[in-house]
Amino acid sequence: MLLSSAGVANARAVTSAAPVVVAKAEASRAASGAEASRAGASRFAAPGKTLKVGAKGTEVKVLQTRLAELGYAPGRIDGRYGGSTLSAVWAFQKVNGISPTSTVASRTWNAMEAPRAPKVLVPRGKPTRVEVNLAKQLLVLYVNGRVKLISHISSGSGIAYCETATWQGKPQRFCGDARTPTGDYKTTWRRDGWHRSYLGQLYNPIFFNGGIAFHGALSVPLAPASHGCVRLPMQVAEVLPGLVGTGVPVHVRSRFVR
Questions:
Q1: Predicted confidence (pLDDT) at residue 29 exceeds the cutoff of 60
Q2: pTM for the model
Q3: Mind listing the pLDDT tens digit for each residue in 58-115?
Q4: How far apart are alpha carbons 207 and 173 in whole angstroms?
Q5: Which of 50, 65, 202, 206 is the most buried (most CB within 10 A)?
Q6: Non-local CB neighbours of 169 within 8 Å, separated by 6+ positions
Q7: For residue range 141-180, what is the model confidence (pLDDT) as tens digits?
């Protein structure tokens, strides 16, 4: 398992002033998005076949295509139900009030015909922003007031740790509380490809709170499991850097209850 960057204890929050956006305009944008979702839903007829990880064929391709249409980034649309598709299914199920499972059955298919929009965490936020819902373990990217990307995540475990790692040529002891702090931040620096931190390897990291970043990982379980970073499925980490620039507001909210 690859480890995330450290959620350093008592990390300093870099707060950004909340922009003044008229609530009515925000509601109008949300309504427009909902209307678009309903319009898209009316054109989609679910095949209804129960699918499990490992399934192949036309129905899987229909699933992947629908997830992509709704912004869930299932990776390659190849008719194979693997890990990338699974993470997108989890995200969709969580947004639609379905307990996440690897099985796509009638309830999930029905929801795809009339999908919900994700809950807006910051109604007065800037039109382009990232919202992280720790309770749901979800990331939502808004671009120009519309949902662009929705992803399953795994944030800080909240379990204190002390680990020894070789850093700067010598063994060092690192301890922290493994939290992803709530608050308002902005994206700062980033790296392309694999980046080595003192607690593991991060893929395409985008930092937003000191050493805490969004980054791809090979393990993104349903429960929070990182040292503090926001782990992303690899296919999401491939596309996010092209969608999020520097200085984009990041809003982290809520709390995961085990």
A1: no
A2: 0.83
A3: 999 999 999 999 999 999 999 999 999 999 999 999 999 999 999 999 999 999 999 9
A4: 23
A5: 202
A6: none
A7: 999 999 999 999 999 999 999 988 888 888 888 898 999 9
Closest CA to 134 of 147, 121, 115, 117: 121
Tokens found for residue 24: 């009515």
